[in-house]
Write the structure tokens for this entry.
Amino acid sequence: MALMPVSDALAAVLAGVEPLPEQMVPLDEAHHRVLARDVAARRTQPPQAMSAMDGYAVRAADAAAIDSRLTVIGEVAAGRPFTGQVGAGEAVRIFTGGVVPGGADAVVIQEDTIAEGREITIKEAAIAGRHIRPAGVDFREGDVLLRKGTLLTDRDLALAAAMNYPHLAVCRRPKVAILATGDELVMPGATPGHGQIVYSNGYALHALARSEGAETIDLGVAADTLAATTAGIRRARDSGADILITTGGASVGDHDLVQQALKDEGIAMAFWKIAMRPGKPMMHGRLGAMGVIGLPGNPVSSYVCAFLFMVPLIRALSGRSVIHHHRERAVLGRDLGANDQREDYLRARLELRDDGTLVALPVSHQDSSLLANLAAAQVLLVRASFAPKAESGSPCEVLRLPV
């Protein structure tokens, strides 16, 4: 099978993917969930004209001249409106958030008055509408303020509450099952034997999936046997996973059994081998509704492929309106040689010049096993296949890694 371009591979991963069914959740459980429907305001905010300051509600015409004297006929506090009318020569004491009484069209702040018993003297001329929040200045009933596909922030929750929603319809969280393979893997804290390594991929993959709003299922590490690998795939299917992520065993060696196990379970492979670096031996297929991504075993390859393919798939299943990673413009911090047929995703640090220019500095060693360089990177520097050599200062594109 020929190497598939990255864009074609991503299109295959996302082909036919629809958002998962919606569910109603309490507002305090909706943070970082994705709206399944547009949300329209159920009320007008504020529902009436409100005072923006502590002071006196007046008729602007009565308080237009310095040293005007007005009679105070009542008081308004938040939640305690004044039921009368403000007439000629009258004022009502009002506090922030109080409903502006009928007849009044301005508020004079208390610092601009002198109070003597039931009378005030105006020391700063009133202006009609000043210090008043008109009814509906924030939003009006029926205004659609939160759109389907929105990843809800903390501010969105405050807005939804003000719109009078105790619950919101959100898309179900995708379930991502992660299965590692390899006799050479031991868990952190163990003492590796000769030829063994400490398992690390899963920790990054679980965290990455959860940061995108998915639930994760840990299927552990399968031994390098067809039976163990097949059993892990079946556990993923039986768990109701929407996505199965495998790590390792995606190449063509005698002990790389993932592809065979997937095929034996009836998964039609959409592709195997991508024209990218790192991550050429990546696989994708479907088993019913479950999407399957077979990641390489090298930790950097595993992470980069998960970032580029698993993350958009999670976002699509979550109903997000923005699925793809945003590419930013930067300039190279050092010279780069010409590229071959594989699209490169170089790990790089990012610096900000005084003039606001972003500078991408690729780490010196790009081997797909070097986790320290991956951890130190802030971006992936994207180089197209067959890109010519580029000098320091040349424009480039980067993808920011999660923080």
Summary: The two ends are 36 Å apart (CA to CA).
